[in-house]
Amino acid sequence: MTTTAPAGAASALRAIARIAAVPDGRGGVALPVLRGEGPLALRRLRPDDGPRARVCLVGAMSAPLGGDALALSADVADGAGLTFTTAAATVALPGRSGAPATYDTRLSVGEGAVLHWLPEPLISARGSDLRQTTRVELAAGARLVLREEQVLGRAGEPTGRLATRLTVHRAGRPLYDQELRYGPGVPGWDGPAVLAGNRAAGQLLVVDPAFADHPVQPQVLGPGAVLVPLAGPAALVSAVAPDALGVRRALEAAATALNAVFRP
């Protein structure tokens, strides 16, 4: 169950959600674990893109607020497939305590398994302070399509403070590790070396053993968007734009170019 701080203390929410996907023995995928608390409500959707199961996170309440601690994990067993989406953007909001919120995501993808992790954008509202981490463990034969998008401030407002880190290991070895920080007190975050005045950023990471024999070529995909190969069977698209729509268009175009299934 969801827990809160003791009476008299500044309110803080702790919530955990878990997903487990396994082959069902009939060519499909079963979800023996699909459990969420508080704002992390999970719903299974009708499959529409092959043998992968589809799960959507439906925000049941406003979160994360300052001081909240949210955790989400997904384990995709050998040979299984999962597509994860969210029903709406996640909005980081300030809390009464002034403490930062945390949102920790852990993903595990087994041998021959496929995970498409496609949440809607994270919006950093004015006065908020969020520390988000995503850790991915891939088997050597796993495939991954992962999208992250950040929007700095709602319409007409300055951004809050946001720190994000994405770490990916494949077959026990580091494949990708990137940390980004934005907002008040972060030197140079809005300068030409980072956002250059833009207010939205995103990345699309595709890991596929097929890239070992056919690596992608570096490309400039348009203003503020580039495609680069990684030191492993993977490709990364990074994009910045004035708004979330611009980032999404850049990532979708790149996904088409990579022949990655990129629809929810």
TrEMBL record:
A Pfam family the protein falls into: UreD
- Keywords attached to this entry: Chaperone, Cytoplasm, Nickel insertion
The primary location reported for this protein is cytoplasm
Task: Output the InterPro entries linked to this UniProt entry.
Answer: UreD
Protein localization: Cytoplasm
Oligomer and partners: UreD, UreF and UreG form a complex that acts as a GTP-hydrolysis-dependent molecular chaperone, activating the urease apoprotein by helping to assemble the nickel containing metallocenter of UreC. The UreE protein probably delivers the nickel.
What does the UniProt record say this protein does? Required for maturation of urease via the functional incorporation of the urease nickel metallocenter.
Which family does the record assign? Belongs to the UreD family.
Q: Under what name is this protein listed?
A: Urease accessory protein UreD
Q: Which organism is it from?
A: Streptomyces luteosporeus
